[in-house]
Every structure is written in C-alpha cells, then in structure tokens.
Amino acid sequence: MPAQTPITLYSKGAVLMLIGAVLVIFSELNPYAAWFIFTLGVLEIVSSHYKKPWWVVRQMLSKVAKAEVTLKIDDDCIHISSFYNDNNMKFSDINQITATENGWLIKHSNSRHYISNRCLDEQAQAFLKTKMG
C-alpha cells in the first residue's frame, strides 16, 4: 500500500474538527451534535495517527480474538476454518495470488485474504509460488 502524505492522512479529521468548531462557536445548532462532529474529527485524527495499533486493538477486542484457526492447503483449495468461520477457496476460483515481503495476498471473488509466512513452511510457500503463475 502506498504511503500517504500527512495532508491526505489527516485531512478528513481536520475538516470534521473545523466544521465542528464552526458549529460550536457560530451556530445555534444543538451543542451535542456540534461537539459530536468535533469529537469525531479528533477521533479520526487519532485513528489515522495510530493506524496499525488501532487496527490491532480492534482485532484483539473482536469475538474472534485468540480463536484457533486451521489452515489446510492442498492441490484443489485453500481451506481456512475456525469456530466462527469456514472458508474454502478453490484454486480455480482464485483470481490472483501475490507474494509480499511477509506473506501472500490472495484475491478470491470480491474479497482479499492474507496468509502470513509465519504459519507456512517452506514446502507450502513453494507450492503457492507454483500456483501464482
């Protein structure tokens, strides 16, 4: 993913803060709504600054945190299963497999999946390389 400049990264939050501040100071609008918009801008800036930690915390607070996941790769498909999810991706239905620095990005139908190299042995990584082309 390309790196964003600070202007594009924080622009939405800054605009929300500015609109909220203008509404708080100059408008007769309900103060709760105006302060909500201002606070939403602050939250957007904080979430943009702490993007990766914010995502990790959100994932750790989800219902699937610490759930055991089983990954099976064979000649026909990639099967990912857990208590909450059961996903079977046939290689014939996979649009693209892209090797990244730390894993594999798999485009399947309208979704994208990521498999980290940490959970794959060398044989599985070599097999995915053959399926790339």
Q: How would you sum up this structure in a few lines?
A:
The protein is α+β, with helices and mostly antiparallel strands and 133 residues long. It is built from four helices and six strands.
Q: pLDDT below 50 for ≥5 consecutive residues: which ranges?
A: none
Helix-strand makeup class: alpha+beta
Which percent range describes the beta-strand content? Answer: 15-25%
Give the strand order of the largest sheet, numbering strands 1, 2, ... along the chain. 1-2-3
For the largest beta-sheet, the strand count, sense and barrel status come to: 3 strands, antiparallel
What key attributes describe this structure?
24% strand; 3-stranded antiparallel sheet; 133 residues; single chain; alpha+beta; elongated; 6 strands
Describe the structure.
The protein is α+β, with helices and mostly antiparallel strands and about 130 residues long. Helix content is about 45%, strand content about 25%. The chain contains four helices and six strands, in the order αααββββββα. It has helices spanning about 5-25, 30-50, 50-60, 120-130; strands spanning about 70-75, 75-80, 85-90, 95-100, 105-110, 110-115. The strands form two sheets. It has a three-stranded antiparallel sheet with strand order 1-2-3, with no helix packed on it. The chain has a three-stranded antiparallel sheet with strand order 4-5-6, covered by helices on one side. A hairpin with a 3-residue loop joins strand 1 (about 70-75) and strand 2 (about 75-80). Helix 1 (about 5-25) packs antiparallel against helix 2 (about 30-50). The longest helix has 21 residues, at about 5-25. It is elongated, with a radius of gyration of 21 Å. It starts with 5 loop residues before the first helix and ends with a helix. The model has no long low-confidence stretch (mean pLDDT about 85).
